[in-house]
């Protein structure tokens, strides 16, 4: 909770210091207060649609209860935000749920620079700490740096990495990684992929090819298609989410760089808009700075 509190500090300041100012000297939640709240949420990257949903719900409460004191507004907002966030089954890596899958296969997608490699390294570390045997597949073969970085993370967190020469077929790396995971009895295989977005059809075809190859080795794989998004890019993250969910069946999100950004509201907007659970959040560059997202702790940190 400590790391989360620190990580969300700027977002919290952005939303709540302004909200406190907006209600200063007022006793009831009136249209002016709601207008201010709307403005605050939109500029905190909650997104227009989600903001309007929140405002409408509060409006409905105001007209139902006739009078809502400004002192109650925080609590109400907190409830509404919590309801918009998807609940996670587990909030610590010890009780991370794999179903019956062994290896549990995570295919990681996202554009360059969002923190994909770092997230993979941190995730490998956390899962290993929780007692799992993990293997990484360096299938982003288009950037030499990507392969090198995965290898480096593998050394750092002492996890095996399967790689081929730069420029080799990503699907072939994915295939090798899963073969090796099965032979080695690994619990989790995490596969990096190239994050080129300039052509949606190309992206779709490439990811489909990788998925098909994975299924030849592990039926049902990938169990998790994890899209990594940089929270500090706010609305860009939403746009990327749109593109990737159209290209492949993303079923989990990782939002990175929540530390140091005031745009943490994007977590709320994305969760509501795409109905895909935010599963992991990055709150720093170190190997321990990845957390399983828990809506209660998140909201608690925001409203402290
Ligand atoms: P990739 O190109 O998507 O693989 O991005 P990288 O994993 O190389 O990360 C890009 C930069 O973002 C690096 O300097 C990382 O240390 C940094 N980074 C990644 N995740 C986080 C995070 O949660 N918080 C902070 N502050 N920096 C991060």
UniProtKB/TrEMBL annotation:
InterPro entries found in the cross-reference section: AAA+_ATPase, P-loop_NTPase, Signal_recog_particl_SRP54_hlx, SR_rcpt_FtsY, SRP/SRP_N, SRP54_GTPase_dom, SRP54_N_sf
One GO CC annotation: plasma membrane
Top-rank lineage group of the source organism: Bacteria
Biological processes, Gene Ontology terms: SRP-dependent cotranslational protein targeting to membrane
Membrane topology: Peripheral membrane protein
Domain SRP54-type proteins GTP-binding: 277-290
EC number per UniProt: 3.6.5.4
Major subcellular site: membrane
GO molecular function, one term: signal recognition particle binding
Residues engaged in binding GTP: 110-117, 192-196, 256-259
Keyword annotations from UniProtKB, A to Z: Cell membrane, Cytoplasm, GTP-binding, Hydrolase, Membrane, Nucleotide-binding, Receptor
Cell location: Cell membrane; Cytoplasm
Catalyses which reaction(s): GTP + H2O = GDP + phosphate + H(+)
Subunit structure: Part of the signal recognition particle protein translocation system, which is composed of SRP and FtsY.
HAMAP family: FtsY
Protein role: Involved in targeting and insertion of nascent membrane proteins into the cytoplasmic membrane. Acts as a receptor for the complex formed by the signal recognition particle (SRP) and the ribosome-nascent chain (RNC).
Similarity comment text for this entry: Belongs to the GTP-binding SRP family. FtsY subfamily.
The name this protein goes by in its record: Signal recognition particle receptor FtsY
């Amino acid at each position: 909770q400590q790391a989360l509190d620190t990580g969300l500090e700027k977002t919290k300041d952005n939303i709540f210091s302004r909200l406190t100012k907006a209600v200063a000297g007022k006793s009831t939640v009136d249209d002016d207060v709601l207008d201010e709240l709307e403005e605050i949420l939109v500029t905190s990257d909650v997104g227009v649609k989600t903001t309007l949903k929140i405002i409408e719900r509060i409006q409905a409460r105001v007209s139902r209860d006739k009078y809502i004191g400004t002192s109650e507004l925080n609590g109400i907002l907190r409830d509404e935000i919590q309801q918009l966030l998807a609940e996670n089954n587990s909030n610590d890596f010890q009780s991370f749920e794999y179903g019956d899958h062994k290896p549990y296969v995570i295919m990681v997608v996202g554009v360059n620079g969002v923190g994909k490699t770092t997230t993979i390294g941190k995730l490998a570390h956390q899962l290993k700490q929780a007692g799992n045997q993990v293997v990484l597949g360096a299938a982003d073969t288009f950037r030499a740096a990507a392969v090198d970085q995965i290898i480096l993370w593998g050394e750092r967190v002492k996890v095996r990495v399967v790689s081929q020469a730069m420029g080799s077929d990503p699907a072939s790396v994915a295939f090798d990684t899963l073969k090796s995971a099965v032979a080695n009895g690994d619990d989790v295989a995490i596969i990096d992929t190239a994050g080129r977005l300039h052509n949606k059809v190309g992206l779709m075809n490439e990811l489909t090819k990788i998925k098909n190859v994975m299924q030849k080795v592990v039926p049902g794989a990938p169990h998790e298609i994890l899209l990594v998004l940089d929270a500090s890019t706010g609305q860009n993250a939403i746009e990327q989410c749109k593109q990737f969910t159209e290209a492949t069946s993303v079923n989990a999100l990782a939002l990175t760089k929540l530390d140091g950004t005031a745009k943490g509201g994007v977590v709320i907007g994305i969760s509501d808009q795409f109905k895909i659970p935010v599963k992991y959040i990055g709150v720093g560059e170190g190997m321990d700075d990845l957390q399983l997202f828990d809506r209660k702790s998140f909201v608690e940190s925001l409203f402290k």
